[in-house]
Amino acid sequence: MRYLRTLLWIFAVLASSSEFGRTSLAAPESPTAEVNTAKTVEVAAEKEAKAPVAHVKPAAFTPPKPEELSDAIDRGVKFLLADQRPDGSWGSAEKTKGLNIYAPPPGAHDAFRTAVTSLVIMALIDAAPQQSDEERVVINEAIDRGAAWLDAHLGKLRRATPDALYNVWGHAYSIEAVLKLHARAAGNAVMQKKWKDHAQAQANMLARYSYVGGGWSYYDEVAGSQTPSDAAFSFCTATVLISLKQAESIGVEFPERLTKKAIASILRQQRPDFSYNYGEYTRLDPRYHERPGGSLGRSQACNLALRIYGNERITDEVLRTWLDRLYARNGWLSMGRKRPVPHESHFGVAGYFYYYGHWYAAQCIAQLPESERPYFKDHLAHIILPLQERDGCWWDYPFYNYHQQYGTAMAVMTLVGCQHR
């Protein structure tokens, strides 16, 4: 079925400027039927485009106290420090009850470990300023060990197999970690040059693995070609674009033509209400999985990516609307949390979208006027705080031995972003 949907996507992209692109894929019974079918599709599309975007207001809540946030962050940091591996990295290929996604070794796990180690380094750097002097010493030592691991391994990261490109996550998140390490090395020109070179090298790898239709994904189930031939995923493309935009601040370069293709890919997956398809291969599917409730974890990242690249349609009101939707309808996303099978929950939601979606929500809040941020910060923290486990971690999907690490890192960065400073 996936192959068929992908072929339909390719056909739709090639035919999008033709008359066929506005009609049903089913053969019409007559010329009259063809005209009626085209008209029906066009009328439906026009009606959807003009439909108002519902702004759902969440229920009242009690804002958490500042010490609740700082205590939760401290516990999360302690978990991450205790979980660091002897080689300086975080995460491993240890199985979680045999329920895991396809991950051909060793390349897939190189990608996962790189992405997770990068996320933890970012979280520790973000959380360090609020710690005591003694705690900062321990945190800085852990960051240094993690940075040394990245320095030694980033240059080796590649796609695992022709069909598995989890390395895209490693390239994207390592860029963001390297940017924080670059800032941390202020005053040390040699170290800053090294981290800039790493960021540029990872950007070059993302250019190499940009998909033929624009954007990025982590599977190529079509041809497994050197230039990936499958359909891009909206949220994966958004993640990469956000990392690349941040990298511009230290002079990292990326081909503009590939950036434009990636943005166009997200826009092709954008619905009038600013929900987003999972991937371009679902463009011709009925809106079964592709409903707003299924986009709660995607819309935050996609809206943010388009916003920072200057898309004027992503207004403050769009960001507010989708933040409130995330809060009011959080149950749709939460019901997928901790389920062991991807996409088995309502709207096809997978558990690993949970902390991902909330972390990008925190970044969307930072785009709003400063006077509006406290409410959205408090509500986001109100959602995340009760989900912390007894050992201090957060997790949303049983994923080898990476889930507690990435979940905790994303939750810590979310709560740091929710603090009133």
Word description of this protein:
- With about 425 residues, the chain is mainly alpha-helical.
- The chain folds into 2 domains: about 1-45, no CATH class; about 60-420, Glycosyltransferase (Alpha/alpha barrel).
- It is built from 15 helices and no strands.
- Helix 8 (about 235-245) packs parallel to helix 10 (about 295-310).
- The chain starts with a helix and ends with a helix.
- Residues about 10-50 have low confidence and may be disordered.
CATH topology of the largest domain: Glycosyltransferase
Derived from helix and strand composition plus strand pairing, the structural class reads mainly alpha
Query: Portion of residues in helices?
Result: 40-55%
Number of strands: 0
Overall geometry comes to: globular
CATH class of the largest domain: Mainly Alpha
User: Architecture of the largest domain, according to CATH?
Assistant: Alpha/alpha barrel
Strand content: under 5%
Radius of gyration: 22 Å
Biggest sheet overview:
none
- Mean pLDDT rating: 89
Number of helices: 15
H-E order: HHHHHHHHHHHHHHH
| Intertermini distance | 50 Å
Number of individual domains? 2
Features of the shown structure:
421 residues; mainly alpha; Glycosyltransferase; 55% helix
Topology:
Elements: H1 2-15, H2 31-50, H3 66-83, H4 107-127, H5 133-153, H6 167-184, H7 189-208, H8 234-247, H9 256-268, H10 296-308, H11 316-328, H12 330-334, H13 354-365, H14 373-384, H15 403-418
Helix pairs in contact: 3-4, 3-15, 4-5, 4-6, 4-15, 6-7, 6-8, 8-9, 8-10, 10-11, 10-13, 11-13, 13-14, 13-15, 14-15
